[in-house]
Amino acid sequence: MGPGSDIGDPLDGRHLSIYLSIVLNIKRLRDVPLSQDLTQTFGALGDPTRMAILARLAAQGDLTVQEIAEPFAMSLPAVSQHLKVLERAGLIARGRDGQKRPCSLRAERLAEATRWLNHTREAWEARFDRLERFLATTETPQSAETKGDDHER
After folding, report:
1. Most CB within 10 Å of its CB: which of 19, 117, 129, 133?
2. Is the alpha carbon torsion for 84, 88, 89, 93 positive or negative?
């Protein structure tokens, strides 16, 4: 096979590493979009305090900053910083109700993250299915017959 020629049949066993690198990984990456908004969302979800805040908002509905801060052993400004990160990521909305500033969960951003995760999971499942099919085609009848022979000797 000369330079620049086609890699041939990827399932013939001679080009396994090229096949796995190009077809299963590199070509498929373009099928999994990740927007800047989702990057911020996953960044915000990466902190246990922020995850706990979102869990409380999901369970209890709208809460004020003081109500959100109650169970945490941190200052009110520290909780406010976490809320700003969640708000910038689009995971919560902060309103105004007279003197109060209630925070509410924005489920649509979580739904967007869930769609991305599901898409990515499906892509990886498809890759593993293709790999399994490929590996099944590379097993020769001789290797199937001699399986386990090493243990009998």
Report:
1. 19
2. positive
Query: Could you tell me the pTM of the whole model?
Result: 0.62
Enumerate the domain spans of the chain: 36-108
Q: How many angstroms separate the CA atoms of 43 and 137, rounded?
A: 41
Residue 22 has pLDDT above 70, yes or no: no
Closest CA to 90 of 52, 55, 43: 43
Q: pLDDT tens-digit profile of 71-95? A: 999 999 999 999 999 999 999 999 8
What percent of the chain is modeled with pLDDT above 70?
A: 68
Q: Which amino acid is at 66?
A: Q
Q: What is the dihedral of CA 95, 62, 38, 122, to 10 degrees?
A: -150
pLDDT higher than 90, residue 140: no
**How many CB atoms within 10 Å of residue 54?**
18
Give me the count of residues in the chain.
153
Q: With beta carbons less than 8 A apart as the criterion, state whether 106 and 90 touch.
A: yes
Can you state the angle between helices 107-138 and 36-45, rounded to 10 degrees?
A: 100
